[in-house]
Structure formats: structure tokens, C-alpha cells
Write a structure and sequence with these properties.
Helices cover about 40% and strands about 10% of the residues. The chain has about 160 residues and is mainly alpha-helical. A two-stranded antiparallel sheet has the order 1-2. α3 (about 25-35) packs across α4.
């Protein structure tokens, strides 16, 4: 076995879940994205609703902005003040948050009252994952690992 093949065999599995966790896999980042998904855009309100300290929240918001998940929008010149808004990339995190909330409401039960999430029609949200090709609902037994692919050089907005 050559060195490159040996390195690939002994390395952790490279996947898009791990790549996504590099950006989203931290409590304060996810809670800040939750707030923006709910229409909360100002720093002080995000800090209050998440419980994050100012320095930690500032760090997470900068990281999310640098990774293209959110954008800062100035709403006041004197003093300079900004709101934080989801980019297209950030808006696509909402189904992940709803799936996490559904999992947590099933498996992390205790006596603490927690907010539930509803659709604009008033019904509770139930995340469902479907195969884009056949339309069949995902089940744990239907998950297969595909070939290694790279998304470098692709435009997510075009679907290509």
C-alpha cells in the first residue's frame, strides 16, 4: 500500500457532517442562528436570548460572518451599530435547528418548560427527510455512504 492510500485508511472519515460541524458545531453559534431564524437581529437581544457572554457571542458572530453564514447590516451611523442577518447559507440551517429541537424534545426530557416550534399555519413542525430522487422517507436503515466528492468550485445557489 502506498503512503497516500495508507494515510487515507488511517485518517478519520472525511465527510460533510464534520465540515459543517467546523462552522456550526458549537452551542453559541447554533443559538445565535436560532435567534436570527426567529427574526431577532440585534446583538443585545441575541445575547439576552441565548445567555452568551458578550465576548463569546462577538467571537461566534465574527466566525459565522467570516464563513458566509450571516452578514452584518449597519442600522445606525452614530454610534455605528449593526444587526446580524442570515445569508442564504445561514437560512438553510433552520431545518437542522428544527431537527435538533425535535430530537431533543423526544430524547432530552425533563421538567423544564421549553419553547416548541410551529409552522406559520399554527401546526407543530415535524421534520421529515426525503430522498430527492425517489421521494422515499429517510430511515436509519436507508443511509449509505457514497463516494468521496469535493464541493470546491461549485456554486450552491445554482444547484450545480
Amino acid at each position: 500500500m502506498n503512503k497516500l492510500a495508507e494515510k487515507a485508511v488511517n485518517a478519520p472519515r472525511a465527510c460533510f457532517i464534520a465540515a459543517g460541524l467546523d462552522v456550526l458545531g458549537e452551542r453559541w453559534a447554533l443559538l445565535a442562528l436560532r435567534e436570527m431564524s426567529l427574526g431577532v437581529h440585534r446583538f443585545d437581544q441575541i445575547a439576552r436570548n441565548t445567555g452568551a457572554s458578550r465576548d463569546i457571542l462577538t467571537d461566534r458572530l465574527r466566525m459565522l460572518e467570516n464563513r458566509g453564514v450571516i452578514e452584518r447590516v449597519q442600522y445606525s451611523e452614530r454610534p455605528a451599530r449593526y444587526e446580524y442577518h442570515l445569508t442564504t447559507s445561514g437560512a438553510e440551517v433552520a431545518p437542522i435547528l428544527i431537527s435538533l429541537a425535535a430530537w431533543s424534545s423526544t430524547w432530552m426530557r425533563d421538567e423544564t418548560p421549553r419553547a416548541s416550534y410551529r409552522h406559520s399555519c399554527g401546526a407543530d413542525l415535524k421534520p421529515v427527510v426525503l430522498c430527492a430522487e425517489c421521494g422515499e422517507e429517510f430511515t436509519p436503515g436507508s443511509l449509505l455512504l457514497g463516494p468521496l466528492v469535493s464541493s470546491a468550485g461549485t456554486d450552491p445557489a445554482s444547484g450545480q
